[in-house]
């Protein structure tokens, strides 16, 4: 129940920041931006103290830890893989073009007799 109340307060903080943006004079653009930023900061702090917020922070830390374990490919491996993809796409394009032309020839010339 307390977490739900914190979420409601977080939404109200964001709404108050946005309302402050529109209610402040157009001349005070820095104050208007600070109003929105302040509302967002208060909302983030409120959500951070909830159970779901702590779980999100824990998940983010674990994700960063796992991302550090990733073995990224070298430039040579990336170029080779990209080249293989391009070759495969070219081969598939030629195959599909030949299939299309063969079916066109079979349908129009052999079956229907619409010789060009």
From TrEMBL:
<feature type="transmembrane region" description="Helical">
    <location>
        <begin position="30"/>
        <end position="48"/>
    </location>
</feature>
<dbReference type="GO" id="GO:0043952">
    <property type="term" value="P:protein transport by the Sec complex"/>
</dbReference>
<keyword id="KW-0472">Membrane</keyword>
<dbReference type="GO" id="GO:0005886">
    <property type="term" value="C:plasma membrane"/>
</dbReference>
<keyword id="KW-0653">Protein transport</keyword>
<dbReference type="InterPro" id="IPR005807">
    <property type="entry name" value="SecE_bac"/>
</dbReference>
<dbReference type="GO" id="GO:0065002">
    <property type="term" value="P:intracellular protein transmembrane transport"/>
</dbReference>
<dbReference type="InterPro" id="IPR001901">
    <property type="entry name" value="Translocase_SecE/Sec61-g"/>
</dbReference>
<dbReference type="GO" id="GO:0009306">
    <property type="term" value="P:protein secretion"/>
</dbReference>
<feature type="transmembrane region" description="Helical">
    <location>
        <begin position="7"/>
        <end position="24"/>
    </location>
</feature>
<dbReference type="GO" id="GO:0006605">
    <property type="term" value="P:protein targeting"/>
</dbReference>
<comment type="subunit">
    <text>Component of the Sec protein translocase complex. Heterotrimer consisting of SecY, SecE and SecG subunits. The heterotrimers can form oligomers, although 1 heterotrimer is thought to be able to translocate proteins. Interacts with the ribosome. Interacts with SecDF, and other proteins may be involved. Interacts with SecA.</text>
</comment>
<comment type="function">
    <text>Essential subunit of the Sec protein translocation channel SecYEG. Clamps together the 2 halves of SecY. May contact the channel plug during translocation.</text>
</comment>
<keyword id="KW-0811">Translocation</keyword>
<keyword id="KW-0812">Transmembrane</keyword>
<dbReference type="Pfam" id="PF00584">
    <property type="entry name" value="SecE"/>
</dbReference>
<comment type="similarity">
    <text>Belongs to the SecE/SEC61-gamma family.</text>
</comment>
<dbReference type="GO" id="GO:0008320">
    <property type="term" value="F:protein transmembrane transporter activity"/>
</dbReference>
<keyword id="KW-1133">Transmembrane helix</keyword>
<dbReference type="InterPro" id="IPR038379">
    <property type="entry name" value="SecE_sf"/>
</dbReference>
<feature type="transmembrane region" description="Helical">
    <location>
        <begin position="78"/>
        <end position="98"/>
    </location>
</feature>
<keyword id="KW-1003">Cell membrane</keyword>
<keyword id="KW-0813">Transport</keyword>
<protein>
    <recommendedName>
        <fullName>Protein translocase subunit SecE</fullName>
    </recommendedName>
</protein>
């Amino acid at each position: 129940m307390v977490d739900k109340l914190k979420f409601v307060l977080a939404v109200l903080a964001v709404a108050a920041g946005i309302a402050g943006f529109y209610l402040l004079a157009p001349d005070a653009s820095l104050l208007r931006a600070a109003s929105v930023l302040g509302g967002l900061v208060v909302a983030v702090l409120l959500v951070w103290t909830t159970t779901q917020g702590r779980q999100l922070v824990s998940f983010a830390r674990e994700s960063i830890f796992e991302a550090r374990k990733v073995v990224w490919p070298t430039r040579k491996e990336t170029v080779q893989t990209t080249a293989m993809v391009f070759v495969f796409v070219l081969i598939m394009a030629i195959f599909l073009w030949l299939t299309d032309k063969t079916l066109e020839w079979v349908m129009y010339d052999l079956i229907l007799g619409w010789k060009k």
